[in-house]
Amino acid sequence: MEGEHVDRVADGSTDRVVDGDLADRSARLLDGLRAFGALYTDFTGRFAAWLGLHSTDATALVEILYAEDKGAPLSPTRLSERLGLTTGATTNLLNRLEKLGYVVRTREHTDRRVVTLRSSREIEKPAREFFGPLNVQLQALVAQYEPGQLDRFENFLHRLRATMDDLLADEEPGPATPPRP
């Protein structure tokens, strides 16, 4: 069709045609997700500055708090994966947070070798104080949408995450031949 924008998207061994509207919408969604990720990083950076921590230490603390809130506390190994750090660097980070009284390593499992990371009572109040306004505004925003809309959005995010997890699990992501400089 005349004037129609068409992009080709690789899909395994075949190509499929995606019309311009879908490509534009996908680009806008990705742009919004990138912007949210950048703002989330900025917010965590402010939390770090507020506590006087290095940004990576604050990010680790946020991951530990979030995992606990979800009822799935992290192990040091899982934290190192979440942060993209070596286990040695994660141990040093946890030593700093433990020394500050923000994190406790516990042995809650029947296998006593398994370590679970818990936030301490000392960080609960400051974390709630800092993140409280965000939680209030998020709840107000969510309240503006119908449950069906939110269900579809949650489904989209779940499927997007699964797609990214699958791509990252691939041992050789991307084209078989890297570009030449």
From TrEMBL:
Q: Where are the transmembrane segments?
A: none
- The answer to whether UniProt assigns keyword Ion transport to this entry is no
Q: Name one Pfam family in it.
A: MarR_2
* Stated name of the protein: DNA-binding MarR family transcriptional regulator
Q: Which UniProt keywords apply?
A: DNA-binding
Gene3D superfamilies with a match to the protein in the record: Winged helix-like DNA-binding domain superfamily/Winged helix DNA-binding domain
PROSITE patterns referenced in this protein's UniProt entry, alphabetically = HTH_MARR_2 (PS50995)
In terms of PANTHER family, this protein maps to:
TRANSCRIPTIONAL REGULATOR, MARR FAMILY (PTHR33164), TRANSCRIPTIONAL REGULATORY PROTEIN (PTHR33164:SF106)
UniProt-listed InterPro entries: HTH_MarR-typ, MarR/SlyA-like, WH-like_DNA-bd_sf, WH_DNA-bd_sf
Q: Output the superkingdom of the source species.
A: Bacteria
Q: Which GO-annotated molecular functions does the record name?
A: DNA binding; DNA-binding transcription factor activity
- Any keyword Glycoprotein? no
- Residues in HTH marR-type domain copies: 19-162
BP-aspect Gene Ontology terms: response to stress
